[in-house]
Amino acid sequence: MTQAEFVVVANRLPVDKAGPGEGEDGWRRSPGGLVTALEPVMKETDGAWVGWPGQADLEVEPFDFDGTQLIPVALSADEIEKYYEGFSNDTIWPLYHDVIAAPRYRRVWWDSYVRVNRRFAEAAANAVKENGTVWVQDYQLQLVPKMLREMRPDLTIGYFHHIPFPAYGLYSQLPWRRLVLEGLLGADVIGFQRVADAGNFARAVRRLFRYETRAGRITVPGEDGTAHTALAKAFPISIAAETYMELAKKPEVQARAKEIREGLGNPKAILLGVDRLDYTKGIRHRLKAFGELLEDGRVTVDDVTLVQVASPSRERVEAYVQLRDEIELTVARINGDHDTFGHSAIRYLHQGYPREEMVALFLAADVMLVTALRDGMNLVAKEYVATRNDNRGVLVLSEFAGAADELGSALKVNPHDIDTLKDTIIQAIEMPEADQARRMRSMRKRVLEHDVKAWSDSFLAALDDARAAKERATR
Ligand code: GDG
């Protein structure tokens, strides 16, 4: 195995094992945003990607895929249960999303998290050249930066946190709160979605360690009397805006959007929600508001349909099983009360779709509902905006999604405030086209200028600065 200049470490590899008949070499590129984001960087530099191949006990040798070296890290079924479903998705995920669901603190999960983080760190340390760069991704791997720094002090290390970082009052619940912060502080650059997340992180560091922090720069003492500077700063992630824009221009996608509208009985307004089925996304609040609007007679099923795509997610974690039951009961009740033979109140789809179909849905929707109770960024909001080349459509956006910091012209809502949410949905349905266009133009400008390439460029530039500062200091 040749060592690479630039290594990405993420929970998942950017590929999925292909089913029979798919993909020539048994793997196909997975559709995720991070994969698209890093594709250009991986191609430009001689890059490697360390990650789990997605199936239990799958031992695979490193292999080349599309010019990138992929380095699989195997996980046993027990580790998937404890490190991934347990500590990552049933401890950290709910804690960092403001305890919308109760986090479970289990010591055997933590032990597994430490072990698996060490395995990822070792794989990265073996993969990267002298003085190279490693970019660690997300909350499953918070301990990797420190582990890597100890194994390889020559490296420049970045970490990007895709989800929120909570206020100290919540963070302090974590039994391993010091160890997790130490893990993150091993990085030279620690990126967050919002300015508020970086602020929460810096405050937690001050409370627990009393390190000096100035304008996001934290002086972290090492064990040998030396110190390094870690920069904690917001780098809001984005989407491949051009790609979405181009997909939306395709005649077949536009024809499909028309077909979808017809299939729903050509209502006056289509409302759309697209989320992984997750308790952070505020799907219940959205359904509650829409159900009450029907109940109050402010909308009727002849005029307005809500399409809710809830893509299957984390189906072995108990909180998700329960959430699905609640949502499906609510949908069935609302539909039972209001459907006619010609029109349905809610078209609920517990399925994943190809990207073209998602874009067609965005084009078919008059109102996009993003009502997350807490969300790092929410890419769906940006995708909707990017596809609306016609400057039509209204985005209703929760102030608790990171995207709210950038998309100032959306109709902002507090999803907990059901009455205001209802009024905002009506306002969106009734918004004059000129007003829609004015708002959409300004949001599109932001998303097209600040696309995912701009995001990765700015993060990598910060890493370059960190490397240059280190070189100056050791000269
Ligand atoms: C985490 C953070 C942050 C969804 N269903 C289908 C489908 N999707 C796509 C969407 C979007 C992506 O999945 C979801 O991204 P989000 O940002 O909305 O949410 P999370 O999955 O929770 O992502 C989040 C993100 O990381 C990036 O940093 O923004 O805050 O929680 O791209 O379009 N795509 C297809 N079919 C589906 O059925 N093709």
From TrEMBL:
The UniProt record lists the keyword Magnesium: no
Protein EC: 2.4.1.15
CDD domains: GT20_TPS
Protein's UniProt keywords contain Cell membrane: no
Pfam families xrefs: Glyco_transf_20
Keyword tags: Glycosyltransferase, Transferase
Top-level enzyme category: transferase
Single GO molecular function: alpha,alpha-trehalose-phosphate synthase (UDP-forming) activity
Family: Belongs to the glycosyltransferase 20 family.
Protein name: Trehalose-6-phosphate synthase
Organism: Microbacterium aquimaris
